[in-house]
Design goal:
The protein is of the alpha+beta class and about 100 residues long. The chain has a single domain, classed as 2-Layer Sandwich (Conserved Hypothetical Protein Mth637, Chain: A). It is about 30% helix and about 35% strand. It is built from 2 helices and 5 strands, in the order E-E-E-H-E-E-H. A 5-stranded mixed sheet has the order 2-3-1-5-4, covered by helices on one side. A hairpin with a 2-residue loop joins strand 2 and strand 3. It is globular, with a radius of gyration of 13 Å. The model has no long low-confidence stretch (mean pLDDT about 90).
Length: about 100
Amino acid sequence: MVSTPTDNCIIKVRVQPKASRNQVDGYEEGTLRLRVTAPPTDGKANAGVIALLAKTLGISKSKLAIVRGHGSRDKSVSIDTLSELEVRRRIAAGSIR
């Protein structure tokens, strides 16, 4: 079986943990701003980031991975199966709702 290359990208994310609600605030200077209700302890905020992005982008959580910044508000998230252009399009479409 031969696998074909799929689209993937890495996006920069700035997270605000312990927010009042889970929310995607959109892009600011090339960085996606997110708010998650989870506290920044024991990886709970990281899990919240993955869950929020998966729901917003309409993909499974297994297609997302934090590749940098596990203990920081500034993170790099790898997204399999989507190009950066498609990610931006889906986020823009989700913010219209």
